[in-house]
Design goal:
The chain is an alpha/beta fold. The protein is built from six helices and 13 strands. It binds 2-(butanoylamino)-2-deoxy-beta-D-glucopyranose. The site of 2-(butanoylamino)-2-deoxy-beta-D-glucopyranose has 9 residues, from α5.
Length: 348
């Protein structure tokens, strides 16, 4: 009797064991199928050993469906910018990945947008920018990442070189195809102002409140501009030679025209933009004056802007050198700290 009972128990346990093994095998099989579906919609992170977005579970992985392309929501309109960000009420979105990347949950965005911000000592502006721009970009159904490129040290600021670096660093993480180069203190006042690239490079800060929402001069190309990857490569990026305030955006305008492109601007109502008022930062004084009338950056006494077209194929992305110091993944943005060297006319 005792022998028969133990045999039955053994039989039961074997059945349970075999059954659970079968479930495990089936689970593995389905995991494989789902993983294939998952990889259709994503790209692997490029930097190894890191943190990045796609190590997170993809909510669509189990649905095994193809998502539709994103469309814009119909209720885009004037945007209420918040300048006072309460300490305990920073923007939150549980779905967002660390480092300030987000993409729509239920559709595929056609553009993958890197927003690149040149930076030094402007924490308060960055806080306001992030608090307003994450909800703005998410409302526009953008697939985007925020890259803050910080210049190490106290030498004159080089906005354009930092933007070139942002382009390169962002591409190490994701296959971005659109780059929006933005100052940290500029925030759009209307959600219809699409943070997207277009068939030509786009100027997006032409109707600033500080200039009474009017275009200051026809060739102005500062504040916020959008380039597809191809457009940016075509102009060889920004010049690396503008140290201190002014001129680098005018130089970029000349590159765009020289490369046979036009610039685009949306209408003045949609493009109304806020520039957070502030004093000029130390280390960002006007770049050296060389004429009696205006400051113009120079190299060996030669005004850079005058020779913009001739210089563009030797000064830019293809001549960029800098020392990467570190990357820091914050909840709302990725900060890359870099040593960008010094102007040619500063001797150590
Ligand atoms: C211009 C600056 C731009 C700046 C606009 C708006 C120069 C080059 C000297 C001719 N250009 O004067 O860089 O975006 O003002 O502030 O300084």
């Amino acid at each position: 009797m005792g022998y028969q009972n133990s045999f039955k128990v053994f039989l039961c346990l074997s059945v349970i064991f075999l059954f659970s093994m079968k479930i495990m095998v089936l689970e593995k099989y389905f995991e494989k199928i789902n993983f294939t579906a998952f990889s259709i919609h994503t790209t692997k992170p490029i930097r190894k050993g890191a943190h990045y977005w796609f190590s997170q579970t993809n909510k669509h992985a189990n649905k095994n469906i193809t998502l539709p392309n994103c469309t814009l929501p119909p209720d885009l309109g004037p945007y209420n910018i918040q300048l006072n960000v309460p300490l305990d009420n920073e923007f939150k979105n549980e779905r967002m990945s660390f480092g300030g990347h987000n993409k729509p949950e239920n559709c595929i965005a056609l553009q993958k947008i890197a927003i690149v911000i040149p930076f030094r000592n402007r924490e308060s502006h960055l806080k306001i920018w992030l608090h307003n721009m994450h909800p703005f970009l998410q409302k526009q159904q953008a697939d985007y990442g925020i890259y803050v490129i910080e210049q190490h040290g106290n030498l004159p600021f080089n906005r354009a070189k930092l933007l070139n670096i942002g382009y390169k660093e962002a591409l190490k993480e994701y296959d971005y195809n659109c780059f929006i180069f933005s100052d940290v203190d500029i925030i759009p006042m209307d959600q219809r102002n699409l943070y997207r690239c277009s068939t030509n490079p786009k100027h997006m800060a032409h109707a600033l409140d500080k200039f009474n929402f009017r275009l200051l001069y026809a060739t102005l190309f500062g504040g916020v501009v959008a380039f597809t990857k191809e457009q940016f490569l075509k102009v060889n990026g920004f010049s690396n030679l503008f140290w201190g305030w002014g001129g680098e955006d005018d130089d970029l305008y000349k590159r765009v025209i020289t490369a046979g492109m036009q610039i685009e601007r949306m209408n003045n109502i949609i493009s109304k933009t806020k520039a957070i008022p502030h004093k000029r930062d130390p280390g960002n004084e006007d770049n050296p004056k060389s004429t009696g009338f205006q400051h113009v950056a120079t190299r060996n006494g030669e005004p850079l802007l005058e020779k913009a077209a001739r210089r563009m194929y030797t000064d830019g992305l293809n001549s960029l050198n800098y020392t990467f110091i570190r990357v820091m993944k914050h909840r709302l943005y990725t900060k890359v700290l870099v040593d960008i060297g010094k102007p040619e006319n500063i001797e150590q």
